[in-house]
Amino acid sequence: MSGDIPLIGQGPKANDKACQALAKVLADAKRGEVQLVGIIRIGDDGRPSIVFAGEADLTPSLNLGIDMLKMTIMRQIVEPPAIRPAAQMGTA
After folding, report:
1. How many CB atoms lie within 10 A of CB 78?
2. What is the pTM of this model?
3. How far apart are CA 1 and CA 22, in angstroms?
């Protein structure tokens, strides 16, 4: 699912994107395609809460998924500085 639903700003649109992501995972689970799920919920107050349920033997895979999530988030929020030609920098 990584990359399917990009991060956006706060507000109703952000909540809509969260609902889309949850609906996709719920549809997968209803088809029997989900053995373990971990959810990190960030409420209006900015505090995280977690929920996870499913096959305990797959928790190492969940831990790997958490690391993948961290890397995906970092790529979306940390952009390398743009390299501008010298002419644009005022040093023609």
Report:
1. 7
2. 0.67
3. 11
